Amino acid sequence: NAGVTQTPKFRVLKTGQSMTLLCAQDMNHEYMYWYRQDPGMGLRLIHYSVGEGTTAKGEVPDGYNVSRLKKQNFLLGLESAAPSQTSVYFCASSDPGGDSYEQYFGPGTRLTVT
Amino acid sequence: QQQVKQSPQSLIVQKGGISIINCAYENTAFDYFPWYQQFPGKGPALLIAIRPDVSEKKEGRFTISFNKSAKQFSLHIMDSQPGDSATYFCAATFYGGATNKLIFGTGTLLAVQP
Q1: Which pLDDT score is estimated for B31?
Q2: Per-residue pLDDT at A99 exceeds 70
Q3: Are B95 and B78 in contact (CB under 8 A)?
Q4: In a mutagenesis test of the B interface, which of A90, A103, A105, A109 is the best target, namely the one with the most B β-carbons within 10 Å?
Q5: CB contact under 8 A, A50 and B93
Q6: What is the reported pLDDT for B2?
Q7: How confident is the model at residue A95 (pLDDT cuts 50, 70, 90)?
Q8: What is the pLDDT of residues A5-63, one digit of tens each?
Q9: What pLDDT was estimated at residue A34?
Q10: Residue A100 pLDDT greater than 80, yes or no
Q11: Are B94 and B30 in contact (CB under 8 A)?
Q12: Exposed, middle or buried by CB within 10 Å (0-12, 13-18, 19+), for A77?
């Protein structure tokens, strides 16, 4: 199993450009999450989904949109990129129930907005 | 609003020493406290977790100590090794909640010197 994969691994955008980050998981998990990681600020939740067709806002949703059309995929979109969105983006997935609330993370996408 | 405070921001320990990372939380409704380990260029991965019905949990060289009345918990790494050099994140959530959302601390960069 590949676990959680993210595409692309690196990207450089100019201010105002748009892009979509793709997250895919092969563990049949219900829940999926998008985080951004910035120095000194830890991991902050952008948006999350508790099932196919559902999305909800996290701690820092402004400037981002998401879609979960298929259970295994969770897309993060930037409509008009800003330098403040320069960050490392992580996708994660987990499953409800059981004794473990473990989130499984992808390898990350490093985004630079100039 | 930061609900989980983590310290120190960085830590240097000699090989064989004890590494200690501390976290404090504000929301008394939190009842599941995991620690995640992140190596450079990788996504975070679950290391160890605790629920507040116990004051300590040990897995190999890693121990979580939990103080419910003080709303604090800490990670102890005994006999620290260079391979333990990584960023460590504490987190908190609601066990049995509907989303498995995690609130992360800001992270601690641990360097174990040989």
Answers
A1: 87
A2: no
A3: no
A4: A103
A5: no
A6: 55
A7: confident
A8: 999 999 999 999 999 999 999 999 999 999 999 988 899 999 999 999 999 999 999 99
A9: 98
A10: no
A11: yes
A12: middle
SS3 string, chain B, reads: CCCEEEECCEEEEECCCCEEEEEEECCCCCCEEEEEEECCCCCCEEEEEECCCCCEEEECCEEEEEECCCCEEEEEECCCCHHHCEEEEEEEECCCCCCCCCEECCCEEEEEEC
Quick check: B32 and A101 CB within 8 A?
A: yes
- Work out the angle at residue B26's Cα, subtended by the Cα atoms of residues A88 and B46, and round it to the nearest 5 degrees: 45
Both structure tokens of B89: 């994140």
∠ CA(A70), CA(A92), CA(B50), 5° rounding? 135
- Chain B contact residues (CB < 8 Å to A): 6, 9, 32, 34, 41-46, 49, 89, 93, 95, 98-102, 104-107
Length of chain A measured in residues: 114
How high is the pLDDT of residue A31?
Answer: 94
Mutate to test the interface with B, among A9, A43, A54 (most CBs of B within 10 A): A43
Rounded distance between C-alpha atoms, residue A101 and residue A83, angstroms: 34
CB-based burial, A27-61: b 16+ in 10 Å, e otherwise: eebbbbbbbbbeeeebbbbbbbbbeeeebeebbbb
Q: Six-digit token pair at A68?
A: 């979960």
> What is residue A103's DSSP assignment?
P
Nearest to B76 by CA among B91, B58, B54, B50: B58
For chain B, residues with pLDDT lower than 50 are: none
With CA atoms as reference, the chain A residue closest to B6 would be: A42
